[in-house]
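[scheduler] slot 2 assigned
[scheduler] job type: sequence-to-structure, two independent chains
[scheduler] chain ordering preserved from manifest
[runner] begin chain α
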Amino acid sequence: MSELEESEDRALRERLAALRDHDAPPGPGFQARLHRRLAEAGPPTPASGWDVVRDFWRRRAPVLWPTVGVAAGVATFLVLGALRGGAVGAGTQAEAALERPGTQVPVSKVAVIKLDFTADVAVEQADFQVSLPEGLSFWADGEELPLRSFQWTQALSAGSNVIPIAVRGQRPGRYLVTAFARAGDQRIEHDVVLEVTGG
């Protein structure tokens, strides 16, 4: 409480105490005089917006302060997660994946990458996509295919589903092959590191 509020509160208590000290009840015209004074005074001035907010917080503080604290913590967590997620983009994830050990294959050879998609139950239709970076190409029937990405649909049986993909490196380097599968609202992603060596 501010000093002004304390002094007003004290003055009100003193006036109420003075009313209690009078033994005689108010006179016959008291009610009419009180009514006339209240009518002359008019309606009370509405509280300012700040007073309404302060009163709201004062009455609900035991519940609101912990709620605001939890909400602020959740908001901070979400903002930091979004900022961190934005900072760790697809490029950074790809770079981290390329640091993993990979399968080595010479430039002159075809590598068969075996993607293993495991399903808990049989799925009638799943959509697949395999994407290759520059420097790798799909290989089929003894020749290079011009596609950078290949999409198809097939059923998945319950358990392990191995899908072989033949690729060939055009020049030495480390490459990240990305494969996606989507069945309904479930999405599975595989990253395979392929190291193409000279010779």
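[runner] end chain α
[runner] begin chain β
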Amino acid sequence: MTVPLRPVSAVTALTEELRRRVLSGEIPPGTALPEQELSAAYGVARPTVREALAALVHEGLLRRERHRSAQVAEVTGEDLDDLMFVRRPLEDLMAASLAGRRVAEADGALERMAALPGDAPWSDVVAEHMALHQALIVAVGSPRLERLYAALAAETRLGLVRLRDSYADRDVLVAEHRDLLDAIGAGSQEAARRAVAAHLDHGWGAPPGE
């Protein structure tokens, strides 16, 4: 059975390509993205570039000041520390609420992550990592928790870019998340909360050399 192809606009295609390059680390933090250069490089009109950049600014992956080119947002070690300061209580609420439950959507994201080919771009890993954690938050059933967590999504994605060298072996990342989901599903609220806290502390430590 064939699946109809989904038409993709030039804006959507460029947005997805730039997003992939930013999340893979191919375009480093702080890099300026002049509209004229992108227009020439991708063979698209400047209004198309402008819309794509605006979408990524809205996502928090780029930052733009008046009369200056958009730049890839930078997330420092201090930013990550503060991000974790805010994320920990939200994830703790999630762990306490979901203890004893399996979340099918989170399990599905984990299996997709495990099935990625060895040469898959890091941006694909980031997408499944985000999907897994988002599925856990959504499963709690609190719209306010979802909104708070969503507000951190852009910085979380950028933070994950910094972790790509720490997880050269994809199996390690998969195993860590499998252990996390198993701990939450096992039934003990305290064990689930400890597992989530340990996961955040380990996974978001400073990258080597910092």
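[runner] end chain β
[qc] chain β: The mean pLDDT is 88.
[scheduler] slot 2 released
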